[in-house]
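Record 1 of the preview.
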Amino acid sequence: MDKNKVEVNIRKQPYTIISDEAPEVIIALANDLNTTLDEIMSSGRVSLTQGLILAAFGYADTAKEQTALAQKLKAEIGEYLADAESAMTERDRLKRENERLKEKIKNLKGQ
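->
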């Protein structure tokens, strides 16, 4: 995949980002980071470095929560798949039983 080189500004500081992501994605991420930093630094008592660290903690927390949620959903999907497999096995067993009973009825009618 081709790398994209995107120029963005974070708190009016220029940065060059090289990524596989589309430029629009990188620009959106930079805009989100600027918004987050604006909120964190609005009190005027937080330096850029402190703001970046606090933003990183917030993003890390979100990533951790999303990872835990993804693992939970993966486990639930596994349970649903196991339930579906069990239901299909039971369906197949009932189909065989139905065919056996149909054959038995047919044989009894023929006597």
